[in-house]
Amino acid sequence: MKQVNKIMSVELIKGKSHSDDRGTVTFNNDFDMTEIKRMYVIKNKDVNIFRAWQAHKIEEKYFKCIRGSVKIMVVKLDNFSSPSRELIPSIFILKSQNNEILKVPGGYANGIQSVEKDSELLVFSNLDLESAKEDQYSFNHTWESNLPHSNHV
């Protein structure tokens, strides 16, 4: 597995679209896919499912809502062995019509919840599956409960 030493932050990459009499083309020319090794789609069974908390020291993930809308919470970990339970996550709502990609670099834990029924999330990763498995951490924390009540979907 390659090591990444620079500190990176979460980034929202905004796409664009062009319409004419033939229809519409949506695109995201600012999304550099050079390092992408694999992709998959997440579709939660219902809106009450909260998939959390998965983290990676090295793996970068890119999230693109392709149907409906999805809430993604991310938290920068202070320690992978025993992260603080007081960390406060950032919330991103991705909507399929907005054509945005959320880049989550290594060092973060994430949690995913569908906002609308039948929402789908396309995920890109910069690691192959075997390398990603070696870099996978799961936490039973409830960081989402550290948010003010008004921030919950």
Quickly describe the structure:
The chain has 153 residues and is mainly beta.
Structure description:
The model is unreliable at about 1-5 (pLDDT under 50). This protein has one helix and twelve strands, in the order E-E-E-E-E-E-E-E-E-E-E-H-E. About 5% of the residues lie in helices and about 45% in strands. The strands form three sheets. It has a five-stranded antiparallel beta sheet with strand order 1-9-6-11-4, with no helix packed on it. Strands 8-7-10-5-12 form a five-stranded antiparallel beta sheet, with no helix packed on it. The chain has a two-stranded antiparallel sheet with strand order 2-3. It starts with 10 loop residues before the first strand and ends in a 15-residue tail after the last strand. With about 150 residues, the chain is mainly beta. The chain has one helix at about 130-135, and strands at about 10-15, 15-20, 25, 40, 50-55, 60-65, 70-75, 90-95, 100-105, 110-115, 120-125, 135-140. The longest helix is centred in the C-terminal third of the chain and has 6 residues, at about 130-135. The radius of gyration is 16 Å and the shape is globular.
